Amino acid sequence: MSESRPNNPMSRTSVIDEYFLDHRAKLLDIAAFLDRVDRAPGDAAEDFRMRAFRNALALLDDGSSERARRVLESMSDQTTELIDVAPGKGACGTPPPEGPGA
Amino acid sequence: MSYIDPHIHMVSRTTDDYRRMALSGCVAITEPAFWAGYDRSSPQGFYDYFQQLTHTEPARAAQYGINHHCWLCINPKEAEDPGFAREVMALIPEFLACDTVLGIGEIGLNKNSKNEMAILEEHLAFAQQHDQLVLVHTPHLEDKRKGTFLIMDAIANTTLNPGRVLIDHVEEHTVRDVLDRGFWAGMTLYPETKCTPQRAADIIEMHGTERLWMNSAGDWGDSDPLAVPKAIVEMRRRGHSAETIRQATLENPKTFLGQSPRFKPGDA
Questions:
Q1: pLDDT tens per residue across span B153-197
Q2: Which residues contact residue B221 at a Cβ distance below 8 angstroms, ignoring those fewer than 6 apart?
Q3: Which residues lie closer than 8 Å to A92 by C-beta, 6 or more apart?
Q4: Domain membership flag for residue A82
Q5: For B60-80, how does the pLDDT look when each residue is reduced to its tens digit (9 = 90+)?
Q6: Nearest CB neighbour to B209, from listed A6, A7, A66
């Protein structure tokens, strides 16, 4: 194995040239999603998923690296014990406030 | 460029997908036993599924020059009823004799429950007893990090060699720990819940190619059986060498899977 950790061969400018428009569009998707949530009628209390979403957004511009890892960790169940019974098969993307077994 | 898709659920895909994969350079695949999108109502349903994995799919793949292999188990999404799960597990020895079966998989956890763990531990004991390779499913989304650590701890309680265990569906928050503990790691290129080809290329740049592969996990849901060749295109676009790309998409699967004498890498 000659290249165990192959650096991205692209320059920073090349990375921006290559990916900026795609991620500009994704940024607008997030902006429009937040506007959509604001426009929708419903309970004023914020959904736990949106709280997690906003917390994760703050990580994107906090000046530290490894944003993807830290966003995933921020939306991960931090408990360590097995739950008694699986409440179903699905996951909702961030831990519910009542705990993982709810 | 030839590649191996080491994790794809072809029972849920059309024959045309085999054709497109072959045209894209796929020479071999491995198909873990998993949830079919619905709960099977009897162990007989799994018997038929195991027949499909060991007989129907290899024949279908062979029409396109792709070598098909499989892994057997009851998946964690259907393991919440231990009695049922054990009835299904009792079917496995009969199929273990088939010459395209590479090992036990994809076992693991889904919601990190006690019953899931009990069945995982029984599968691990079975793999240990029969000297089988192991392919591990890790949970989705918020359950992944916790489940991955619980699974690695469970394996550490056995005598299984981590070098014969692949832990799949790693992401940025689990890949380092999986590799540091000596396991192989799989990145799944899945549109919403796992990695994109871009993030997979990023992970290779951050963590290297050693003991790391990528797969499509194409199945009955929103997924892409051409995800691996799309990741190859992404890596080429960034200027990665053909050697690096080949390592991640062909040589690494050959090395891990080649620990089973039954694995046939195909014309690569």
A1: 999 999 999 999 999 999 999 999 999 999 999 999 987 788 999
A2: B37
A3: A49, B141, B142
A4: no
A5: 999 999 999 999 999 999 999
A6: A6
What CA–CA distance (Å, rounded) separates B37 from A61?
38
What pTM, to 2 d.p., does this model score? Answer: 0.96
How many beta-carbon pairs under 8 angstroms link A with B? 116
Residues of A in CB contact (< 8 Å) with B are 1-10, 18-19, 66, 68-69, 72-73, 75-80, 82-89, 91-95, 100-101
Can you tell me the distance from the alpha carbon of B139 to that of B14, in angstroms, rounded to the nearest whole number?
A: 26
CATH superfamily ID and name for B3-257:
Metal-dependent hydrolases (3.20.20.140)
Instruction: Please state, in angstroms and as integers, the Cα–Cα distance from residue B73 to each residue in B12, B57, B66, following that order.
Output: 17, 17, 23
**CB nearest A93 (choices: B110, B142, B241):** B142
What ipTM was assigned to the predicted interfaces of this complex? 0.95
Domain ranges, residue A28 = 11-41
